[in-house]
Amino acid sequence: MSTVVIGGNSREVGKTSLAASLIAATRERGWTAIKLTRFGHGICSRDGSPCGCAIANPMCPYEISRETGAVAGTDTARMLEAGAREVLWVRVAMGELATALPAIREAVAGRSSVLFESNSIVEHIAPEVYISVLRLDVPDCKRSASRLAGRADAFAVSGGRGVRPPWSGFDVSLLAERPIFDVRPPAYCSGSLIRFVTSRLDPSDVLPPRVGGRS
Hints:
Helix content: 10-25%
Order of helices and strands: EHEEHEHEEHEHEH
């Protein structure tokens, strides 16, 4: 199984767009895509109001649901429309990701290629590729993005190449040590970035086309 992780410095910096672009360009891999959302302490909401990420059962710290495409425009629906064979939304309470890991591993068991949209998952798995999406014109940077930047294999950068990141706690020396790919909306991707990712994946994980369906 080949695993790719796409994280980023904040919301709406192009993580899902990059994930969808990568899936669309490599449909033959039969992607299982996972959107991982942590809830609690207001981190899922911009203004402190409920955002719908918290699960209904307060006794369970996580929930895994499958995207069916019924709600168009969501991040998970976009990845499904891009060509993923299946898309899961994993909602996990703050501090409980380790608790959810056995269920996540069971959900992806036997899959050929798995893509996570998350930063924090790289604290628990060793992906073939971890790409961190950085929008340098966004003043916010998640603590997980700063903390885990040293594990990134490459950075997908937009918002001004050569601009010094405005985030305290982010090791800017990493931008001189890792490959950097200039990306732009709406795709937040490039051919060179796709080639970089696929060069690190096991070619034997490519699936044969579905008979009478999409690959």
